[in-house]
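hi! just following up on the protien thing from before. the input was this:
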Amino acid sequence: MIVKFFLASVLTTATVLTASTAAMADSLVCNGSGGGGRGDYSYELWQSTNNNGYYLKIWKRESYKKGTPLWVDNGFKSSGEARDYFDCNYTRNSVHNCSISRR
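and the predicted 3d structure came back as:
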């Protein structure tokens, strides 16, 4: 009886820990691409677990999702700021906010 109680407790604890870990995962907001010519890039925009910021994962378009991103840029306060940053730094688009530069 004690063994059954112990195993039930361990399984319950493991289930709760697994569920709470899954709930803490960052969430994908959107993805896209741009650039034109040989400088084409793809990105994923993620929101951090604690909802205090956004970050971009950026790949060359031809290697999108095939491995580690070329860059991860973080610290954006909004999804719009992150997308403007991508447009200004990785595409040929001229966005009104192109003063956003981190490099």
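Residues 25-103 form one domain.
The helical segments are 2-23, 79-90.
cheers
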